[in-house]
Request: fold
Amino acid sequence: MQFKDIIGQEVIANSLTEIIDSGRVSHAQLFLGGTSSGSLALAIAYAQYLNCGNRQHFHNHEHGVLRADSCGTCPSCLKYQQLSHSDLHFYFPTASIQSVSKPQSSLFQSEFRDFLNSFNQRGTLEQWYDFVGLENKQGMIRELDADDIVRSLSLKSYEGDYKVVIIWMAEKINDVAANKILKNLEEPDPRTLIILVAEQSEKLLSTVISRTQLVKIPSVRSSLAISPEVEQRFASSYVVWMRQLFKLNMLSLSTWVDEISALNREQQKQFLTYSLQAIRECFLRNNAGMPQSMDFGDDKFNASFPSMITERNIERLDKAFNNAIFAIERNAYSKITFMELSFSISKALKKR
Ligand SMILES: [Zn+2]
Reply:
């Protein structure tokens, strides 16, 4: 996972790469954030960057623009991209199923990798349970996992510089297991990194929290609370808009801008947020094989538009939308904001 594929988290990505570049990597870190924040994806991107043999630095230092990333092509990155690096270990909640009576993470490794790939490293705990067939059982990270963690950290690293242990949903570590890894959290071996990924710090033992460096992952602007009717209206307006931008028909564009600017500011903001989500969804569909989750009510558009959004224009689009949302929040003149945004999108779509 590269940071550039984690849309909307450029600010935290920049501080993470700075930590590594300045050599201030803490051996035990707690990535705290909601599921939608992409905290697990960020933890993986962070470990990949740490081990990358050819870190990339970009020269655009504007706020909100990614400044550094792993290369994605060195031997270490290639293994990280496949999640197959032998010094990358995942631990996560498991429970017994028919074929596994003594559940532990090591017995579910390939399922977990498939799960990560299927959900673009953003799946929820519930989706994991469904994916692996745990049904209504409560998963846990157990003593056997703790023993494994201690063992894998005591081994010499195979290939990478750093041995990395990522514990996903760390609030599910039971007390016995937590106590077993306290020493590793406190006095880790050199060149090891333990990342706990959790959603709720209050469910973690204070002895664990006190031994980790906290990295708060902000949530990504998303999840609109709008009615299906409004969503339908937004969808058709979005389709009309994108078609105009592709052809850049000025006359119908200015009519469209007049119409959208007639909405109140809150609705304008909601529409922009909806549209940004739609753009991100198209990107994930086109580039990460995600199934379609938004319906724009137009089969031709549903099928053809995602290919317009690629890694060559997604960052630019993301930024243009966020600037427009910011402007609307700050009471900028709507017609100008929508017109400027339209030109930025139109330019970006040509750069696909
Ligand atoms: Zn690399």
